[in-house]
Amino acid sequence: TPEVRYWFCEAFQGHYIGLNGNYTQFNISGIPFIKKLEESRIQGWAAGAGLNYGYAFPISRRWNMEFTIGLGLWYTEYDKFESRKCGLFQEYVSRYAFGPTDLGISFIYMIK
User: Fold this and answer.
1) CA-to-CA distance for 77 and 100, rounded, in angstroms?
2) Which residues of the chain are under the pLDDT cut of 50?
3) pTM
């Protein structure tokens, strides 16, 4: 997930906003409580871009802690199959979706 950031005060401390990009390939099925993935398997790719907000603060002389959250737009294309092994093809799907692009807690070691 490449990202560019603008720090409001000092770099690596305080509030920032960022712009990120994402790409992933997937082949998933059998996820409980998600009806679409309990009954079928999907295989494809997704790409997205979003805006982040974060906050970083020092926890010691060389260590920082950072929280970040990002929202943005995803585009995905995938094939849907029956969930059984070697299941039959059901449909091709392409769609846009708005949702999370980043969520994290990071511990950062500062090299000086």
Assistant:
1) 18
2) none
3) 0.78
